[in-house]
Structure formats: structure tokens, C-alpha cells
Specification:
Blueprint: H1 5-10, H2 14-25, H3 28-32, E1 62-66, H4 67-70, H5 78-82, E2 89-90, E3 106-107, E4 119-123, E5 126-127, E6 146-153, E7 167-173, H6 176-179, E8 182-189, E9 194-200, E10 203-204, E11 207-218, E12 238-250, E13 255-269, E14 276-290, E15 295-312, E16 319-325, E17 328-338, E18 345-364, E19 374-395, E20 398-420, E21 425-430, E22 434-450, E23 453-464, H7 468-472, E24 475-477, E25 480-483, E26 491-505, E27 508-520, E28 523-529, E29 532-537, E30 540-554, E31 557-571, E32 590-598, E33 605-613, E34 616-617, E35 625-626, E36 629-641, E37 644-651, E38 659-663, E39 666-669, E40 674-683
Parallel strand pairs: 4-7, 25-29
Antiparallel strand pairs: 1-6, 2-3, 4-5, 6-7, 8-9, 8-40, 9-11, 10-11, 11-12, 12-13, 13-14, 14-15, 15-16, 15-17, 16-18, 17-18, 18-19, 19-20, 20-21, 20-22, 22-23, 23-26, 24-25, 26-27, 27-30, 28-29, 30-31, 31-32, 32-33, 33-36, 34-35, 36-37, 37-40, 38-39
Membrane topology: Multi-pass membrane protein
GO cellular component, one term: cell outer membrane
Main location: membrane
Amino acid sequence: MRASLRTILRSPSGPAWIGAIITLALPCPAAAQPARPTGEPYPITVIGRGLSDTPATPAYDTTVLERDAIAASASGRIEDVLASVAGFSQFRRSDSRSANPSNQGATLRALGGNASSRALVLLDGVPVANPFFGYIPFSALAPQRLGRVQITRGGGAGAFGAGAVSGTIELESGSPDTLGPLTAEALVDQRGETQAALTVAPQLGQGFAVASVQWDRGKGFWTTPSGQRTPASVRAGFESWSAAVRAVAPLDATTELQASVLAYDDQRTLRFAGADSRSSGQQASLRLVGRGAWAFDVLGYVQTQDFANIVISSTSFRKTLDQVKTPSTGYGGKIELRPPLARNHVTRLGADLRVAEGALYEEPFSAQTGLRTALRRAGGRNTDLGLYAEDDWTIGRLTLTAGARADRWRIDNGFFREIAASGRMTTDNRYADRAGWTGNFRGGAVWRVGDAISVRAAAYTGFRQPTMNELYRPFVVFPITTQANAALKNEKLEGYEAGLELRPSAGLALTVTAFDNQLKNAIANVTLSPTTRQRRNVDAIRARGLELGARGAWGTFSLDASLSWTDAKVDASGPSAALDGLRPAQVPRLAASGTLGWQPAAGWRLSSTVRHVGRQYEDDLQTDVLPAVTTVDGVVQVPLRPGVSLLLRAENLLDARIVTRNQAGSIDLGAPRTIWGGLKVGLR
């Protein structure tokens, strides 16, 4: 603890600091224990989550998906679950079977146009984005092992708030109460592709454990339209698995220890034979949660990820780039304390640390000769140390909240080297280290006018560092070369919103939110010439719009619907002036989703989801259009005997044509009609 802040930020031994953080917090449980009569044992309750939401959580635009909604996905993939929430989007429309993993950024509020995530995605409190690219490893986040998902739109100022410029997506693992002691699924579709998952969740004394594995594989569907196929064209084949183990144990009446391990591997083939990609990773975390009078949450984590990819020429069908490996490491931790300072107040005081390190190793090849032309290596390190404080004050039916966050960010060790095939060094760039302090704030209020009406308002700021991919790695998607930019500035968000929740009758909730968000210094791929783009900061992306939600339950029927209408525009000047007033790339004006469910008897479940995504543009200059599309999905579960059910799932039931990429008429397509059938086993 004698080390200076500068030494901490430069230290490569991040996990050691995490251990120190946890050790410092260990004396807290004793202080948190409530008084009890002599000889009377503490009642022990194990929850397996972090600290509960604060009273002012409803002041922000928040949506919660419980276990039933998570399990109702027709594809069985988490990105499909999240797509039911208005405003959620990936960089492209492809799912985690047919997208390049490096394109899987998660964003809310129509602030997209970038493959890096502008939303903070947490799994049991741990940031899961790839440390180098910023993409989300969706195939590793199996819905079968989740118990709850909470999406909060707008800038975040709490734990790991740096990076949450469009919102926060919190994934929470399930427990024996939500998952049951054993669940299993095995399905096959009409193309012979398979999905299999197994989860066991036994009670162990007063704690519990959850062990889960998922395995998907298949030859895939055609992403290339029939009129554009060549002898080198192939289906989007895929094979992925993920495994997770989580244990939760009480240390005393108010304190529990949570330990988690996750590992995954994902292999895909995109468009042409030999165009293979592979992403893999491992993650471990340790969390100590105390729920006494002095509540606390202490977390430490470490993760390693890798990405490899081969690019095939669309003209010669030879290998043009071999991204041999992109190893990256992320580590960090947080401490949050909730002291009982005043009546009717909930105060949060905390600190968090995130470090991301990575490097790419890639080899370009000539499309004409097939010979290697160079060797490239690039990488660096990004660090963020944050301090935050927030207070919620409840005054009758009114709750006020205000929070502030200060971040010490650092970008260092950046480099890009290229060596010609002859062995001569042609480029050796070492970029200057940069660092600074950034302050952000958020505040809001929620007024419960009556049992049926709540009114809320909020304002916030936020920021995101550019990823190492944006800073240092150029890439080619023929015929476009996109250059990196080591001089990129941090993105900064300013936003405000107001909302209304109505409960006109039992079981029905209606919400409406109006928002105005401005992302300054937004990073975009800016066209410099017909074949060249560069990552640059534009003046701002401004998104204004409405988000509507409806959720209801009437006897055996249920409805969950959402709609997002957004007017998003780019403010640009100077070299990017051609973008001024245009809609950001990959951003639709309208997106809507609705799921109608019916449970006619115990164990039965029938649901249908209709989803619409409006027209959007592939590129920044609005040259290439991705047409609007409406899809229909369905899920049917029929009990065959106690604990065993027939499971049928239909994706894109009407076989709508989903255009996921359009570059000068070169088109990729999303999932066609896909019918799954199999068995589901669930013990209670």
C-alpha cells in the first residue's frame, strides 16, 4: 500500500493487487454482524448474487429479464435474449454462429456504428469484453445457466462504470432455486446441427454449486446469396463449447464467498473455405459479499482470451491475411462499501481497477501469389482506476439519487511493427504514453405518484477509452482497408431522460422513456477514399428517441413487448465533414420486439416472438443499405412425463431474408428458417 498511484497503474502484477484488496476487506464481516441473544445461532441465507439494487435503481431506464424470459429464446443464444429489449444492438445483425467474433460489440441507445462495445457487459459482476478488441464472447454466455438479466440504459457511474457510455448489461448466474438441481437439453435441426447443454446445481450444506457445459456444432447455413456463390463458397460452419463452475458458501450469517470459473472455445467458418476464425478464453473470479449493517462487495478477477482469423480473397480465393493469434489479458477488482450513515439513505462508496493488455501477431499474404508479404505485431495496455460515490435518499414516495465518479485512465506501451518478407523492418512505431483524470456524474429522481403511476428523470455523463484494436490494428474487408489511429481520444457521453410507468391493472405494466444522448469524440470508421477508411473521432453522435415497453400476465397468458424509435445523427467537421447530418452506420431508426406466451397447464409453454429491425446503413456515407426485416420465432414445450418435455423451437419461421452485410453489393445473409426439436429434462 506504500506504492504510489503511478506505480499501481504501471504494475504488471494486477492479480496480486486483487488479492491485497480482498485481504483488506476480510475484517469487515465481523463489524457487519448484527447483535443476537447469547447462544442463539445466526440464521444463514445464501443468495449467490451481489448486493441488492438500491432504492433509486428505477430512476434510470431499467429492464429486468427473469428466468422464464431468458429460457424462451428460439435460438438458445444470449444475443437473441437481449434483442428482445428495445435499443439493444450488435455491430451487425449476425448472431454468434455466423458473425466474425470481432464484430460482436454490444451497444444500447443507437450509439452504434462501431464493432467495440459501448455497453458494459458484466457476468456476476465481472466485465467480460475481450480486452484487446472490446467484443463480447456471446457464445460463452449460455442462457441455460443464467437466472436474471438486468439492462440499464444510459451512462453508468457505479462499479466499472468506465465504458458504460450507452448502458450496462448485468448477467447473473442462476442458483438451485432458479435452475433446479438438474437441467439438460439436446436438440437437432433440419440441417443436422446440434445443441446440447447440461447443468447440475446441488445444495452443498448451507451453500450451493452450479456446474454447466454447453456444446453446439453444425455445418451452418449459407450466408452467401445463391447468385454470388463460387466454388470456394461454403456454409457458415460452427462448433463451440463453454463450461462454467460456480460455488457459493456462507462464512457467517451475513457474509458469503462466491468463486467462479469459465472456459470456452468457439470456431467458425465465414463465407469461403479456409476463412476460419477461433476465439477462446478462461476467466476466474472471487467475490466476498456482506449483507450486514455495513454491507460490502469485494471482487477480484483475471481473464485470458485469444482470437485467430484467416481472411480469404473474394477474387483469387487465396489466403490474404493470417491473424495467427491475439492473446490478451484482463484483470482487476472492486471494493464497494455501503455504510449506514443516515436514516432513509443508501450510500455507496467504492473503487475499482481494470487493466487490459494484449498484442496481435498477423501475417499478410499476396492474393496473387499466395506468398507471405510481411509480419506484423501491435499492442499495448489500457488501465483505469476509478473512485465512485453515490447516495439515494428516500423521502416518502420520492427517491433522489446523485453519484460521482473519478477515473485515472492510462494508455501506454503502444506499438506497431511490420517486417517485410525479406526480414527488413519497414515500420517500427512506438506511441507516446498518455494519461489523465476524467470526472463523471449522474443523478435522478423517481416519484411514486400512486400505486399505479411512477414518474422519473435522470441525467448523466460517461466515458470510454478506445480499445487496443481501434488504436493499433488496421484491417481489410475487401475492397476496403480500415486504418488504425493511435491518436484517438476518449469518447465522452452527455445525456438525460425522463420516463413514466403505468400499472393500470393487476399484472400489466406500461413504460415510456424519452431520451437525448450525445456521444462526443465518437469513434467511427471514416471514409477517406473509395478503398480506404480510418478510425477517427467525429465531433459527436447524437441520439434522441423514445423507448416503449409493455409487460403483462393474465392467467395463463403473458406479453412482453418493447419498441425503440431513435433519431440518431452524426455531428462532424474538418476531415469528417462529409458525415455531418448522416445517420451513424449500423443504426436503425426503428426496432421492436414482442413475445406472447401461453402456459395452458403445468409444464406446458408456448410462445411466439415477432421482431422488427428497420432499415440501416452498412457504411458511414449511407451508400450501402441493409433493408428492414421482420422475423417470427416460436417455442413449444410439451411435458411427456414428470421431468421430461418435448422441446420445439423455430427461428425465422417465415424465412425472411436478413441482410447482415452489404459492401458494394457483396452481401451476407443471416439465419434462414431453422426448426429445432429435442428433449428437455428438468428435475425439481
